[in-house]
């Protein structure tokens, strides 16, 4: 007797999206090996001597891997309970981007190196080992960053305006000097950004006493400014840790939890 259509999709879903079964674990391991091989090919192809020596082998492997990833993406869309949600999800976008470059390479040769985006998919390795403690911390960090985005965006705008002002001020101080490196406002703003972030490439340096004094001020200012985003995110992480599910549901998976539960019985989220 032929199995119902929905049962076949459910079995395929368990293999491709879960790792609780033997086939699911085998598929995830095979996928990680394929991703590793694909990234290795991308690196080898950038070395001219190796690319010439193994050109035929690399091309065959690339076509085979592209075919595998294409089938995988189609299968994931097919067996997903909500295909649209998968396609628009983070991993859905990454999966699509990982198969597009080889096809785009027929029209844009350099586009094929976007294939390195497959490295993001290594995150799926956590499903194999069930490292709930690490996964939970990852979700905690993501939620904290989402809550901090508005504050960080405002802070980023403030820092950008400050860099423009400092770069303009340095341009006014240094532009009239002989052999100056501050030849235009764009270069001066670039110097301000590099100096304030304490990167300090040293490719552009002031030559006047006032310019050096301003540089020292910007360096010290950079140390104090860098700490602000860390404080914003840390405050939200503390809030997330203190928060308890108020509607009787897990904040991560939405499954019902009891008041005395410390962990969600469905996904292992710490409550």
UniProtKB/TrEMBL annotation:
Compartments it resides in: Membrane
Which residue numbers delimit the Ion transport domain? 25-238
Q: How does it sit in the membrane?
A: Multi-pass membrane protein
Q: Name one Pfam family in it.
A: Ion_trans
Q: Which SUPFAM superfamilies match?
A: Voltage-gated potassium channels
**InterPro entries annotated for this entry?**
Ion_trans_dom, VG_K_chnl, Zinc_ribbon_dom
Coiled-coil intervals, chain numbering: none
Q: Listed GO molecular functions?
A: voltage-gated potassium channel activity
Could you list the residue ranges that cross the membrane? 26-44, 56-74, 86-104, 124-142, 154-173, 185-204, 216-238
One BP term from GO: action potential
Q: Which GO terms describe its cellular component?
A: voltage-gated potassium channel complex
Record key words, sorted: Ion channel, Ion transport, Membrane, Potassium, Potassium channel, Potassium transport, Transmembrane, Transmembrane helix, Transport
Q: What name does UniProt use for this protein?
A: Voltage-gated potassium channel
Q: What organism is listed for this UniProt entry?
A: Xylanibacter ruminicola
